[in-house]
């Protein structure tokens, strides 16, 4: 059997008394885009640093494309491109000089290094600004250059830790397109984010992590089907919401109400009957599409994480 891109088995990691990963078991399939999702402090960065060999787990097994990270950390690291959450670039150097430096750390030299630098700059849409100092770049350009630095050694697995924080919609769109392009080229991408709409747009599989534990994982469609609360949106020309014993919760939303229920079709029928019998004009009646955002909130709760 071909080993998966990433396998974490019962991984545990503490920082002193602070348990960051309690018991994490995860599998990332080759050639997919995998969304690692979780609120602040869930353990996403810790898990990714362990996969890259930057941090050692206290317990558990980690392998990358079949290579045991504990046994052969250097071989594993060569297979992985890691884009950290914090920008790690030299502001006083140009984009080319930054990439030449990082490429040198991977042992790239001469014409190979120059070609890889040009390729990476093209890929992230920065070829025309290649000779400008990074200090003159916008936040989105720095993020894209940060990604280019992780592509120079042509990794089979790219790990991105919240790559779209603080970027404008254009750079965000460019980064999402870049991920789709890499995936189409056969690169496995792990994408950590708390932007659920981005994960829905690019990920094949997702895992939701909280307090160092995996709450759910699987194909995006499966996770939505398994956990998304079913709901109906109703707007009608009446001040009160419809009466519906099947609704577990009724919330005001836009010009109407959201009725959560495991029997949404019964709810819809009941609303239509009431509208007809009481001559109330119905303005909208929709089965709400399950969203990753609603799954995320229903699994991780709505209390603030600081
Ligand atoms: N170097 C460290 N020393 C002590 N505690 C740490 C350290 N790094 C992380 N932690 C703690 O470990 C837990 C997991 O943190 P981690 O950064 O892995 O979460 P995260 O999901 O990536 O969060 P965020 O979305 O905020 O980046 C948190 O409680 C955090 O405060």
From TrEMBL:
The keyword ATP-binding applies. Keywords: ATP-binding, Nucleotide-binding. SUPFAM superfamilies: P-loop containing nucleoside triphosphate hydrolases. Residues 6-236 form the ABC transporter domain. InterPro entries: AAA+_ATPase, ABC_transporter-like_ATP-bd, ABC_transporter-like_CS, P-loop_NTPase. Transmembrane segments: none annotated. One of its GO terms (molecular function) is ATP binding. The keyword Cytoplasm does not apply. PROSITE patterns: ABC_TRANSPORTER_1 (PS00211), ABC_TRANSPORTER_2 (PS50893). This is ABC-2 type transport system ATP-binding protein. It comes from Alicyclobacillus macrosporangiidus.
